[in-house]
Design goal:
Layout (H helix, E strand, L loop, with lengths): L2 H27 L7 H34 L5 H33 L9 H31 L1
Length: 149
Amino acid sequence: MSALAVVLALTFVWIGLIVGLSFIEAPVKFQAPGITLALGLGIGRLVFRVLHAVQVAIVVVVAVCLALGAGAGIPVPAVAGLVLAILMLIGQLALVQPRLTRRSNAVLAGEDAPRSRAHHAYVALELLKLVGLLVGGIALLAHLVALAD
């Protein structure tokens, strides 16, 4: 499998992770009977800690593949989409997640912490990341199909 095919596959795996965990699992878990805010936050922290680690691993593998020559000739929309996704992940991890962690720490400690707008920022960055991945993935797929012809 070529390095470019690995980048393509990881792009679509990343899309699946975001849709499945951020947009399906995260909101649905709070609708389960007996789930309290503290329990939902505890579960969410574990799930998102693993999700973030997997996303960082994907970024590292994609960067290595591109550095090893798969990046030559990749269409600009593919590069732009992947760069957007990576920047949104960095923003989530560096700017938003620490605020969300402080709030969840307070709630789990039994404090009556006010709702945070950081969650909305996280979702907005997640949507932008998803758009970047879709643009990048579709452009990469079209590029690989064109190379195969």
